Amino acid sequence: MRNPYLPEVVPIREVIEETCDTKTFRIATHLLFNPGQFVELSVFGYGEAPISISGGGDGYLDLTIRAVGNVTNRIHRMKAGDYVGIRGPFGNGWPLEKAKGKNLLIVAGGIGLAPLKPVVEYVCRHREEFKMVTLLYGARRPSLMLFKYKFREWEKFMDLLLTVDEPEEGWKGHVGVVTTLCDKIKHRSDTITLMCGPPIMMKYTSMVLIELGFPPSEIYLSLERNMKCGIGICGHCAVGGVYVCRDGPVFSLNKALRFIEKPHEVQGVLD
To answer: In the listed set 90, 114, 132, which residue is the last one of a domain according to the structure?
Structure first.
């Protein structure tokens, strides 16, 4: 059995510029993963950081990384042929098996589209396994949207609804936060919702969905904590008796409300 604390040393195969502060690093590895899982990425001499897997294929994983700290800023200066370390994959992933045969709503904000991209790609490959599929995606500005070169392909398989907080020259789409797209959802029953984005976005989008009749048990969130070991031993990501790295990072809203502080607007929903 492989030691879960020892990273696999692997080369960067390709670097894809996504936005001004976000890149996708294609890592050469044969690790298998489930959509929604993450790896611990080591940049030697700088540290380790948990990174969601944004895609994969034969002999590689994609890690879409925004430059926000010591480790991520350093990897942004790396190029194809440089070596990093990865441990994992860790976590439970999105409940795709439960979603099969049902409507599927995917809600993403900003960098939150990265861990949901494998779900979108699964739907494109296995469209017959789901009923109606809708993707709501919001970003601060059009230039900060991830995977724009994929949108035309995705539209062939699902309803793709986009919005931005701040329009830029040439933007002719919707303006507003993601919640302003919720009234455009065509399916509100027999639906599994998968959501990832900034905490404030997930909070208010969950509130709106509950008001529309989506039960908390069918809404799933990917939660971020300061995950270190990845296997629930070090305690860095413990909250309310739950280890996010081991028991998550994906939780139903029904379960998440039992160990995170409840927003006062949804208190009583589970009582």
So the answer is: 90
Report residue 105: phi and psi, to 5°: -115, 125
The predicted pLDDT at position 63 comes to 98
Q: How many independent structural domains does the chain possess?
A: 2
What pLDDT shows up at residue 259?
A: 66
Are residues 62 and 108 part of one domain? no
Tokens of 122: 């699964």
Query: Tell me, what's the pLDDT at 11?
Result: 98
- pLDDT value at residue 41: 96
Q: What is the pLDDT of residue 267?
A: 42
- Cα–Cα distance, 126 to 157 (Å, whole number): 10
pLDDT value of residue 103: 97
Sign of CA dihedral 118, 119, 122, 127: negative
Residue whose structure tokens are 């899982």: 37
Is residue 1, in this structure, part of any structural domain at all?
no
Same domain, 84 and 107: no
Please check whether residue 3 lies inside any domain of the structure: no
| Low-confidence stretches of the chain (pLDDT beneath 70) | 1, 225-226, 259-271
Can you give the residue range of the structural domain that contains 183?
96-266
Domain with 45 in it: what CATH number?
A: 2.40.30.10
Give the pLDDT score at 261.
Answer: 53
- 180 in the same domain as 255: yes
Q: Which residues contact 1 (CB under 8 A, 6 or more apart)?
A: none
What DSSP line would sit under 209-230, residue for residue?
HHHTT--GGGEEEE------SS
Q: What is the CA radius of gyration of the chain?
A: 18
Angstrom CA distances, 260 to 12, 136, 197, 222, 263, stand at 37, 25, 16, 13, 9
